[in-house]
């Protein structure tokens, strides 16, 4: 049996994954840090329905003493947005004690997923705002990253979007 499912196979199935999607979050624990485990293919074949959101969870130990709760879960999308599939790597340091209640672990994971989705939505809103400013020929802020120094500036009176804009870099088109 193969260890991973081909991404082409998943994309061919479409966002419904060839089955009924029911409300909820399905957590699929595995050792892979990338790709879709072959076990998921068995779910698609044998189960009459799967959850509307799927999270592939891997637990990994990293070469640092401790990982803070804020940095514990690393998320990324597995497919396009309409598939609602994510990869989550739960990171622990070599001195971290991993004896928490599974319900607490799962609640923290879901809270981190929600935070990831909120941040993704904010980044998308910034991208859309930037495109609108580019089209209008005004100053535009480059993609705003958390680690990027920012400045609050007053916008020229010709811009009607608001009185202040947060931006990292300027470009005048």
Structure described in brief:
This protein is α/β, with parallel strands linked by helices and 173 residues long. The chain has helices spanning 7-13, 38-46, 102-136, and strands at 4-5, 20-29, 36-37, 49-62, 73-77, 85-93, 140-141, 151-154, 164-167, 170-171.
What's the structural blueprint in terms of helices and strands?
Blueprint: E1 4-5, H1 7-13, E2 20-29, E3 36-37, H2 38-46, E4 49-62, E5 73-77, E6 85-93, H3 102-136, E7 140-141, E8 151-154, E9 164-167, E10 170-171
Parallel strand pairs: 2-4, 4-6
Antiparallel strand pairs: 1-3, 5-6, 7-10, 8-9
- The share of residues in helices is 25-40%
Sequence of secondary-structure elements: EHEEHEEEHEEEE
Which geometry do the CA atoms define?
Answer: globular
**Structural class, judged by helices and strands?**
alpha/beta
Radius of gyration: 21 Å
Which sequence of strands runs across the widest sheet?
Answer: 2-4-6-5
The percentage of residues in β strands lies in: 25-35%
Describe it for me?
The chain is of the alpha/beta class. The chain folds into 2 domains: 1-98, no CATH class; 100-173, no CATH class. It is built from 3 helices and 10 strands, in the order βαββαβββαββββ. It has helices at residues 7-13, 38-46, 102-136, and strands at 4-5, 20-29, 36-37, 49-62, 73-77, 85-93, 140-141, 151-154, 164-167, 170-171. The protein has a 4-stranded mixed beta sheet with strand order 2-4-6-5, sandwiched between helices. Strands 1-3 form a two-stranded antiparallel sheet. A two-stranded antiparallel sheet has the order 7-10.
């Amino acid at each position: 049996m193969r260890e991973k499912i081909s991404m082409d196979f998943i994309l061919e199935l479409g966002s419904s994954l060839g089955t009924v999607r029911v409300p909820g979050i399905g957590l699929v624990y595995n050792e892979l840090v990338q790709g879709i485990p072959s076990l998921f293919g068995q779910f698609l074949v044998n189960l009459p329905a799967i959850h509307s959101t799927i999270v592939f969870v891997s637990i990994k130990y990293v070469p640092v003493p401790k990982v803070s709760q804020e940095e514990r879960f690393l998320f990324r999308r597995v497919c396009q947005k309409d598939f609602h599939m994510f990869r989550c790597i739960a990171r622990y340091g070599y001195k971290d004690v991993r004896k928490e209640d599974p319900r607490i672990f799962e609640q923290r994971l879901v809270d981190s997923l929600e935070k990831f989705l909120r941040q993704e939505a904010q980044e998308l809103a910034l991208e859309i705002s930037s495109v609108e400013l580019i089209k209008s020929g005004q100053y535009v802020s480059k993609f705003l990253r958390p680690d990027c120094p920012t400045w609050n500036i007053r916008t020229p009176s010709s811009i009607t979007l608001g009185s202040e804009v947060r931006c990292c870099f300027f470009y005048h088109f």
